[in-house]
Amino acid sequence: MPTDVTAAVRSICLALPEVREERAWVGTRWQVRSRTFAHVLRVEDGWPPAYARAAAGDGPMDVLMFRSSGPELDALRGGGPPFFAPPWRPDEVGLVLADLVDWDEVAELVTDSYRCRAPARLATLLTRPPAPG
User: Fold this and answer.
1) Model confidence, pTM
2) What is the chain's pLDDT, residue by residue, as a tens digit (133 residues)?
3) Are the beta carbons of 83 and 77 closer than 8 angstroms?
4) Where are the domains of the chain?
5) Which of 2, 12, 75, 130 lies 20 to 30 A from 27 at CA?
6) Architecture label for domain 3-123
7) φ and ψ at 66, to 5 degrees?
């Protein structure tokens, strides 16, 4: 896994309350109270195969897995590249992190994923950005 991608996601995740980082079976994951809300990994030469199939490519590509809910979940899972819908969890979304990734968008997606997985007491500590318009 490229250290710059991991470092960028790490900086977003570790800014959230009570987050712990650990090595996953592949890549790195971040958890709140033992519940994973973000996972980054590299797909290369079709490995790991489940992620290569879900992302519809053999790589090399860096992938961020996160959780979502409600209308945003449906939009992200059905929106097409760079997003994809892995078959193993109905509330999980994958994002291929291309060269021109919007890190502000990634921060919003990861923060929303944290809200989905964190206990209510921790989730309420986060402030939402004001709605546009």
Assistant:
1) 0.91
2) 557 999 999 999 999 999 999 999 999 999 999 999 999 999 999 999 999 999 999 999 999 999 999 999 999 999 999 999 999 999 999 999 988 899 999 999 999 999 999 999 998 888 654 444 4
3) yes
4) 3-123
5) 75
6) Alpha-Beta Complex (3.90)
7) -150, 170
